[in-house]
Amino acid sequence: MRQRKLKNLDAKYEAYADLLIDDPAAMRGRWGERSGGAPLFIEIGCGKGKFISELAAREPQHFFVAVEGNKSVMLRAMEKVRRLGLKNVAFVPELAGDLSEWFGNAEADGIYLNFSDPLPKNYWYKRRLTYRDRLKSYFRVLKSEGTVTFKTDNTDLFNWSVLEIIAADLKILDITRDLHADPEAAANNIETEYEAKYSGFGETIKRVVIGR
């Protein structure tokens, strides 16, 4: 079920001004000022924030930037972060385009793509977050050892994405087609809301970690 647009959203957002980055382009090359020099990780499409809030709580030595185009959904993520008292998360209330417009070269340490929209129409393929040109663009903002971690329940999207990784001349550092059945891979996994729901329906969760 889709999140309905909440009423008085702008007024609700005022309470979270300290968590918001309204002009991410102005932060390009300056994220260290916000993070205090901590390693920087990005989640594109944070949804209601279960993943990013739990990860930030688990890794207080890191700083996280959560990007989400649906402002009603992102409000729930900010509520979680505020409730947990986390100081190492900032939110960008926009759709992610070219991350190079928001982050400088080698400014980030890792990117998470969790259950991205599969955009199933064939003519939408260039808009998918794992399209080869998108994948290459992520590595322009990542440090040399930086990685992109992609999770999905959609088998067709996953298989297509693996081919895009190869086409982009990038490396598959780790891959599993049934994350929850792999004890080592599942040990440190943090479920998103979507993941918990659809794995409960018997869907297998696929994950790939991508490097240079």
Beta content: 15-25%
Computed Rg: 17 Å
Distance between the termini: 37 Å
Assembly type of the shown chains? single chain
| Anisotropy-based shape | globular
Mean pLDDT: 94
The residue fraction in helices comes out at 25-40%
Profile the largest sheet. 7 strands, mixed
Question: How would you describe this structure in keywords?
Answer:
7 strands; Rossmann fold; 33% helix; 8 helices; seven-stranded mixed sheet; 212 residues; globular; alpha/beta; single chain
Question: Which secondary structure elements does this structure contain, and how are they paired or packed?
Answer:
Blueprint: H1 9-14, H2 31-35, E1 40-44, H3 50-58, E2 63-67, H4 71-84, E3 89-92, E4 108-114, H5 132-141, E5 142-152, H6 155-167, E6 171-176, H7 183-187, H8 193-200, E7 206-211
Describe, in short, the structure shown.
This protein is an alpha/beta fold.
Describe the protein's architecture and organization:
It is built from 8 helices and 7 strands. It is globular, with a radius of gyration of 17 Å. The longest helix is centred in the middle third of the chain and has 14 residues, at about 70-85. The chain is α/β, with parallel strands linked by helices. Helix content is about 35%, strand content about 20%. A 7-stranded mixed β-sheet has the order 3-2-1-4-5-7-6, sandwiched between helices. The chain has a single domain (about 10-210), classed as 3-Layer(aba) Sandwich (Rossmann fold).
